[in-house]
Amino acid sequence: MCAKATMEEFEAMLNESLEMDTPDEGSVVTGKVIAIEAGQAIIDVGYKMEGRVDLKEFANPGETPQVAVGDEVEVFLERVENARGEAVVSREKARREAAWDRLEKAYADETRVEGAIFGRVKGGFTVDLGGAVAFLPGSQVDVRPVRDAGPLMGLKQPFQILKMDRRRGNIVVSRRAILEESRAEQRAEVIAQLAEGQVVDGVVKNITEYGAFVDLGGVDGLLHVTDMAWRRVNHPSEVVTIGETIKVQVIKINKDTHRISLGIKQLQADPWDSVASQYALGTVHKGRVTNITDYGAFVELEAGVEGLVHVSEMSWTKKNVHPGKIVSTSQEVDVMVLEIDGAKRRVSLGLKQTMRNPWEVFAETNPVGTQIEGEIKNITEFGLFIGLEGDIDGMVHLSDISWDQRGEEAIADFRKGDMVNAVVSEVDIERERISLSIKALENDNFSDAVEGVKRGAIVTCAVTAIEDGGIEVEYNNMKSFIRRSDLARDRADQRPERFQVGDKIDARVTSVDSKTRRLGLSIKAREIAEEKEAVEQYGSSDAGASLGDILGAALKDRN
């Protein structure tokens, strides 16, 4: 009974000894390098256990292994015994576990960690943080995009942990955050020494479309393209080059954002101070076209002084064309000063004012009544447009095409491109209009025929045609028509057939219409007028004489 109790006690003691001395798998243990062979280090981890670790696990990325026999090292115990009776250990996993503990503390304390960039991956780089591998996004490498990361590879430098997840094994770091922090400190120190209006030297670091960044000794200032010169600068590279040392003036400092605005033109005299005295209104000056827009062209009168030639002031005749079809960039032109606005720094210029008004020239060389020849440029519903000298047009209205035809009929005989003769009938210089007349080339038959004829006059004409509605007659080679109702006073005599072609008849003029070119005639009106005259001269109804007696006396007296 006593022997059995002794055996149980010994077994309990043995188990307790084994439990206390044998380390747990998955833990970090301290071992000693007892040999190096075949690219591996043999490590005694105690407890009568040995394991093998590849030498490369003792080196940082890009470095040679630093291990020797007798060194004590920490390794990660994966398994107590493998198939060969050896412990399975890992120096890399031990470093990783230690690194994660250290990094978690640094992440919680928001302190910097040291690491080295050792590889490139999609979207960024890999960083060794003393055993743990982190991801460095490309946007977090520097404050500005880095084209070549070669000089940064393998270099020990500080990083800031942005995010980490131990369970997933993810760590994201930033080098940019460290640089921005140090730059902010440096900027604050430099900015404290600067003042608005101060003139300093700087080095051009970068050039963009809108300006250049100038290093003022640890802090950058923006030299905007509009502050590089008083003249128009199309691109900053026209004024500065990268690496050039330039003298600039501090225009503005934003204490909150630490942004600094710089200028070069502020160190030079403002040409606008003498614009009003140098460019009097109405004077003509030479200039160079610097820019062309839809609404006009900018002309440089001198460095820093530009004026706008509005599209309406570019040509007397070209009204609806793009300014680029009249002038070209860099072309030298003569312009007239039309207006100066010193407050807004604007000069209004005129190009056409340096040339004579073509309508004035035409009026001088072609007074009213002058016969001209020109090509039909356009045909519209209200007339013909004729091309004239000086690149201007004159218009022949419908009513000025023909004496005998209606305008709508007469215009059908003309085609675009035809050469025609016409007479200048009016020149309106202010409204830029020239009126022409084709019919003025010929005599007006109507005017000749009715010359001296007034309403109420009695004329003799010849019958040329008999129609149901009346008769056609001719007076001084001009046709007219007497309607049936005007053929006689008495309705019974209002018969066209009582006349014959060739008969000479007297008729009273009822109207002379120059616009419609019609002569109104009436036999009836003549008879009524004669009756009234006879009554007034030879008697009245009160005298007891009959109308027949009166007319008979009148006819006898006439005979």
TrEMBL record:
Please provide an example of a Pfam family that matches this protein in its UniProt record: S1
Q: What is this protein called?
A: 30S ribosomal protein S1
Supply the source organism for this entry: Roseinatronobacter bogoriensis subsp. barguzinensis
The molecular function terms in GO held by this entry are: mRNA binding; structural constituent of ribosome
GO annotation, biological process: translation
What family is this protein classified in?
Belongs to the bacterial ribosomal protein bS1 family.
| Gene Ontology CC terms, in alphabetical order | cytosolic small ribosomal subunit
What are the S1 motif domain coordinates in residue numbering? 26-92, 110-176, 197-265, 282-352, 369-439, 456-524
Q: What does this protein do?
A: Binds mRNA; thus facilitating recognition of the initiation point. It is needed to translate mRNA with a short Shine-Dalgarno (SD) purine-rich sequence.
Keyword list, A-Z = Repeat, Ribonucleoprotein, Ribosomal protein, RNA-binding
